[in-house]
Design goal:
The chain has 203 residues and is an alpha/beta fold. The protein has helices spanning 16-27, 34-44, 48-57, 62-73, 82-98, 110-113, 130-141, 148-167, 183-200, and strands spanning 5-10, 30-32, 103-106, 120-126, 179-182. It has a five-stranded parallel beta sheet, sandwiched between helices. Helix 1 (16-27) packs parallel to helix 9, helix 2 crosses helix 3 and helix 2 crosses helix 5.
């Protein structure tokens, strides 16, 4: 398969965003994460922080998932809640960014937006080493040691719920991905190097 896009889902504290940015720097290929929300925020004249709050409210119920997916697929976003419209707008933004050329996408169910495009490599990044994960969370996000577990669980629940509600798939089911990387073993640079080979081998 000629890889044109890499979509990354990641555990909180796994360094997934750093790996994606490192990969982008090493290849010159565009990387989009927060930029997706910035594009949607501009469209709706809202702040990124407001949109992140909507994301946190998304429900993981199967009924919501089926309804949201049916409305998005029928191009009828007006019937959706704000959370549903946000997802539809994010998917539109991802497809628009993908039209510019090869790219790395971080989160936001990008694999769903690009599921009909050829050359999409789905990646999940985790960190099985709990000590390394906690150390990274404390260092990168300045989270106090006593709060690390609760913060980590909060963000992982949010990502899992958002993914399930909008893709109707389990976020941490590794069968949904082509590659699963343990950053606790490989580190940031080597993880990025593995994904770099996926891009370069077919270019």
């Amino acid at each position: 398969m000629q890889v044109k896009y890499i979509t990354i889902e990641r555990e909180y504290g796994s360094g997934g965003t750093s790996i994606a940015r490192c990969l982008s720097e090493n290849t010159g290929i565009a990387c989009y994460g927060r930029e997706i929300l910035e594009a949607v925020a501009k469209k709706y004249n809202r702040s990124v922080d407001q949109l992140e709050q909507y994301e946190e409210k998304v429900t993981g119920s199967l009924l919501y998932s089926l309804f949201a997916l049916s409305q998005v697929s029928s191009a009828n976003p007006d019937l959706l809640t704000m959370e549903g419209r946000l997802f539809a707008a994010e998917q539109e933004a991802i497809r628009s960014l993908a039209a510019k050329g090869p790219a790395v996408f971080i989160g936001h169910c990008a694999s769903e937006a690009l599921k009909d495009k050829p050359g999409v490599l789905r990646v999940f990044i985790r960190c099985a080493d709990e000590a390394k994960k906690k150390e990274r969370i404390a260092r990168e996000y300045n989270i106090a040691g006593k709060d690390i577990d609760s913060v980590r669980k909060k963000f992982d629940r949010k990502r899992a719920a958002y993914y399930y509600a909008n893709a109707n798939k389990k976020w941490d089911d590794f069968r949904n991905y082509h590659i699963v990387i343990d950053s606790g073993i490989l580190g940031i640079e080597k993880s990025a190097d593995i994904l770099k080979v996926c891009f370069i081998s077919d270019r």
